[in-house]
Prior knowledge:
By secondary structure, the protein is mostly helical. The chain is built from 33 helices and six strands. Among the domains are: about 440-490, no CATH class; about 495-625, no CATH class. The protein has helices spanning about 1-15, 20-30, 35-50, 55-65, 70-80, 85-100, 100-115, 125-135, 135-150, 155-170, 170-180, 185-200, 205-210, 220-230, 235-245, 255-270, 270-285, 290-300, 305-315, 325-335, 340-350, 360-370, 375-385, 395-405, 410-420, 425-440, 440-455, 460-470, 475-490, 520-535, 550-560, 560-575, 590-600, and strands at about 495-500, 505-510, 580-585, 605-610, 615-620, 620-625. Strand 4 and strand 5 form a beta hairpin. The longest helix has 17 residues, at about 520-535. The chain is elongated. The chain starts with a helix and ends in a 6-residue tail after the last strand. The model is unreliable at about 545-555 (pLDDT under 50).
Amino acid sequence: MQQDLILLLRSLLQNALNPLLYSSIFRILTRTPNSLHHGRQLHALLILHGVCINPTLAARIAAMYSSSGDLRSASLLLHYHPCPSSLLFNSLIRGYSLRNLHIKVLSLFYSMLARSVIPDHFTFPFVLRACADLPSLLTGCAVHSLCLRRGLELDVYVGSSLINMYAKCGEVRFAHHLFEVMHVTDVSSWNALIAGYMMVGAVKVAEHMFDDMPKRNVISWTAMISGYTQNGVAGRALQLFEQMRKNCKEVKPNWVTIVSVLPACAHSAALDQGRRIHDYARILGFDSHPTVQIAIMGMYAKCGSLVEARQCFDCLPGKNKTVVAWNTMITAYASHGLGAEAISAFDDMVSSGVQPDAVSFTGLLSGCSHSGLVDRGLEFFDDMSVVYSIKPKHEHYACIVDLLSRAGKFEKALEIVNQMKIDTGPSIWGALLSASRTHRNLDVAEIAAKRLFVLEPNNSGNYVLLSNMYAEAGKWDEVKKLRAILREKGMKKIPGCSWCEIDGQAHAFFTGDKCHPQATEIYKLLEDLPVRMKAAGYSPETGFVLHDVSEEDKECNLAGHSEKLAIAFGILNTNPGATLRITKNLRICGDCHTAAKFISKIHNREIIVRDINRFHHFKDGICTCGDYW
C-alpha cells in the first residue's frame, strides 16, 4: 500500500505542483505507521521539483517527522522557515510533548512568543502539560494569563489542561475553581481534579467526586486506585480494582491500572492477591510490558517471595533488563538482608553493560549495611564518585552511616556526618539512634535524639526509642520526663501491629489484642510454647518489656506481642509445614526474633517476617539475618 502511495506521488509530481495537495498527502503519512522513509522521499522530491513549501505545507511535513520521532528534521524545518506559522510550531511542540521533553516544549513556546507567533487552543494544552509534569507552577500561572488574554480559559481542552496543571502543582483550590466555572467539563477534567485531591491526601473529596462522575473511563478508575495506594489505603485500592475487574463491563483495566494496583499488594503483603493480579495481567497480555514486568518483580519481592521475583527477572528479555529492572533486584536482595547477592547482582549488571545510577548504589549500600559488609560498603561508597561519577546524595550518606553504626563504628560514623557537604537529615540521625539502641550506646543515642527532636518534633518514635534506652539503663526519672513531653505534645506511641494473609484475607493483631474470634486458641498456643521453647534453650529477653514491673509480668507482656499473636494464628490456620508470612508496622523486637527462631524449629515451619526495615526468614531455628539486624 505504501509503495503504491509513493508511485502515485511520483505521478502527481510530474503533473501538478499544488502545495495543498501535498499537504493532504503528508497528513495521511503522519497517520500511517512506519512511513518516515516514504515521507523523507516525498520531501526530497518536493525540494527537487521546486514545490513552494508554504507555512501550511511546512507544518504538515514537520508533523510527519514529529510523529515518526525524527524531531531533528522537524526542528530544521522550523529553523530555516522564514515565516513559521502557529501550526508549524504546534507540530513540533506536540512531538516533543509526546516524548516527555518538557523543557524543549517550553523553549519552543518561548521562541514562538519571541517571533510574535500567536499561540492557539492547540498550543496551550501541550504547554500546560509541560508545566504540570515538571512541575512549574510559576510558568503555569503565566501561561494561564495568556489563555485569559486569548479568551481560551473556558475552552474544554485548554480548561482541562489548566485544571490538570494546577492539580499536579498542588494548587487544588485553583483547579476546583476552574472546574466550577467551566461551562462544559469532560471526563479528563474530572480525572485531573480527582488525581489532584489524591495527591494532597484529600481522599474523601476524591471519593465523592468519583461517585458523582457522570461518566468514567479507565483513567478515572486508575486515578482512584493509584491515589488509594499512594495514600496508604492499600486495602481500598485492592477492593476497587476487584470492583472494576468484576462489575465494570464497559471499562477494562489497562497496563497503567495493573502497575498502580501492584504496590497495594506489596504494601499489604497480599501475596495471594498479587499472584491473582499477575495471572490477570498475563491473560490480558500486559505481562510483556516492561513497566508491568518490573512492577510484578517488585510486588513479589516486597511480599516476601524473593524466588518468584527472581523468576520474573530471569524471564525478562535482554532489552528489558534495564537499570530499573536491575535496581529492583538489587533492592530486593538488600531488603531481604542478602548483601552478597545484592553485590553479585550489581556486578552482573555492570558486566552486562548497564550503567548503574544513584538508585543502584542506594540498594547496594543498604544490602551491605544489613549484612555487615563494612569494607565492601565503604569501597562502593568511594567508587560512586571516583569510578561512576555519581555524586553521593542524602540517602547514600544515610546508608553509609547506618552501615558503620550497625557495626558499632560510631566514631567513624560521626566523623562522616561532620564532614558531609550537604545538610544532615532525619534518616541519618535516625540510623545513629537505632544502632545506638542495638549497641546500648546511650551517649550517641542522646546526641542523635536531640537532633531528631528538632528535625522531627512530632515523631513520637524518637522519643519512645530514647525512653526505652533510658528504661533499659534503669533511668526511670529520664523515662518519666520523656513521657511527660509526649503527653504535653499530645503524641502517642504507635501501637505495634502485625498481620498475616490466610486464603487471601489479611488478619491483623495489635499488641495484647484479645478481640480476635480465635483469641482463646491463640493465647492457649502461646502459653504452651514457652515450655517447649525453654526445653530447647529459650530464655525470655525481658529487657524488651520496658516497664518498671516484675520479671514475671514482663514475660506475660512479651507473650502478647503482635508478631507472636500473628505467628500463632498462622500456625492454627494453615496446614503443617506451610510457610507463614507476617508483616509488622514496627521493628521486630529482640525477644520475638529469638522466639520466632525456636518456633520455626519446633513446628517445622518457614516464617517470613517483614518489619519496617527488612525481611527476616526463619527456618530450622536460624534467621537469614544471622542475628545482625
